[in-house]
Amino acid sequence: MNKYINYIETRSWALFLVYTITSCLIYSQVISSPPIWDDNYFIFDFAPFQSGLSYAEIWKNFAWPMTTTIHKFTLEVFERNYTLYHILNIIVHSLNSFLIYKIIKKINLPHALIVSFLFLIHPANLISVAWMIQIKTLLAFTFFSLSFLCYLKFQDEKKLRSLVIGLPLFVLSLLTKSTAILFPLALIFIYLFNNKIKLKLMIPVFVFTTLSLWGGIKLLGSSIVEKNQMAHSESVFERIEFAVQTIWYYLEQAFFPSNFTPVKGIFGSLDIFSLIALSLFLVFIIVLLFLVQRVLGIAMIVSLILMLPFLGIIKAPYMNVTSVSDQHLYLILPLLVWIFVCLVEKIIFILTRLDSPKTKITGTIILCFFGSYFFSSTILNSQIYKSEETFYQTSLKHNPGNLFFYVNLTTYYQEQNNFEAAVETINSALNYCQEHPELKNTDVYSLIGTKWFEIEQIARRRKALEKN
User: Fold this and answer.
1) pTM, 2 dp
2) Using CA atoms, how far apart are residues 345 and 354, in angstroms rounded to an integer?
């Protein structure tokens, strides 16, 4: 077995091929899936595309021009062949896993093959790979990883050519998804890990940071995407409460994934004592990681900082609410998986009393268990994305307060001529709003009313036809 693993590791094409075949196997159920959620709005029925939006206008006005360019280009080439969009996502995800392997090896961190493979099959990546529109998340990661590798090559060879190639790739990452803004922290992590902070080699880090600031300014200055209009103001306590719960959710999904709902619901309220207890426990974990191995503590702090855009502390200018969704975890997951694998190694090392053969056998069994769990969970839960009906029903089961799901599911049933199911769905939405009157003050509630009126009109026409 080791002979075959060594053969694959020493041949990049073989490793990439294995990763691609594995991804195709895992996501085989969604390869021919139809559009879901925002796929139609931002790609197939996107109004600016219908009115002849040019690439020049995209790069002049849009906050994420690379993302919109990708959507426009794939629509022109693939049209409505949904299989091609899914295959593209699968290939890019496989490439990202391969690039993670290359980066870890280049930095001389341990467990490159294990971490990159666990990332490949991790169930938290389901939504990023199975949802067509998330090509933006996948490619933002690709561009940054390639830029990172160019930087590491510059660090080794001191040749400006690598930096000249790497900086534009980082810019493309910023223009694909703004969360890349905090990625220069990953470069700082390298220096802290190696304990070599030299001014000459830190200059490129400042250049990357400057580009990140430029990306943030471009995001704020975009004239196309609607500005944030919060439905209500949130107190400082509410924001801290949401941030702490979101951190714990993402850590749980990275280490022990169990929630596979496509779009998550709203966290329940915490009392002040629970909030303090969770915060102190998080600090305790970071301190413990520093005691186990200094680099693990640094990696955890970097991971938490990379989560900042998704914690609701700083409101994104183009989001009405800060959403909790696993696609945000995609950009941070490799670092968290590496922490997890290193921790497992340390725990096994202690429990087996420094016995090398026992350590290897126990480590192999535990990693095989987690690998099997990740692999099977991803395959089993990928069926959620097989159809719009399954996607919306699963999301409503765990997130009944999202009125958009009722509207979209009702529309789906209408298109399928399943009128009874459409009536039942829109009535469920109205009943839920009766139980939660605060929802009646939202813009989505008017959509529910419009959809209900539309259903009523259809019902009257059906009754008229039956009488005649």
Assistant:
1) 0.86
2) 11
